[in-house]
User: What shape does this take?
Amino acid sequence: GQNIDQPTEMTATEGAIVQINCTYQTSGFNGLFWYQQHAGEAPTFLSYNVLDGLEEKGRFSSFLSRSKGYSYLLLKELQMKDSASYLCAVLDSNYQLIWGAGTKLIIKP
Amino acid sequence: SQTIHQWPATLVQPVGSPLSLECTVEGTSNPNLYWYRQAAGRGLQLLFYSVGIGQISSEVPQNLSASRPQDRQFILSSKKLLLSDSGFYLCAWRTLGQGDTGELFFGEGSRLTVL
Assistant: This one.
């Protein structure tokens, strides 16, 4: 079966750095997405990785290792508004999105 | 630019009543359309997707149905709601043409509470 694992919940301090991990086992791979979802709102796109390596976009970076079936989302200089759930999703060989359950990130002052 | 809109945003319905959630996309042609449900604190569960007018694929057997009467319109329905139908419903679209990454774009969501 297809599976995506990410931690259920993480806590970090304002101004700090946090890394959210995602491991996957899917039927094929055509890319990995990270979405941010604030409580009661729709998910919004953060990043897309299809090749190995690090993609940096402002305070957010996303890393991919296809050989290890592993990705992480790195958030720097955390702000209170970063409190949200972060969803990892993989595009499989049929271009269907397989979703992780999401990681709830709690930011403390 | 492309936009997606779904309504109503919030709905409180009694058990056994019907349901209709609507979603429209503007600014693109022949999109793939999706209905997801998200239970509180849980991940996204794919309910239906459509690759064209009148073409509906169901991922989860249940008392819900979907229809696509027009290219950019997607409707989620039920004849008789169950308590377990409560949740946050999300409509989404994407295109899978050359150069597309497969990124999904979501509507604002519809919060359904069945009492």
About this structure: Chain B has no helices and eleven strands. Residues 28 and 111 of chain B are 26 Å apart (CA to CA).
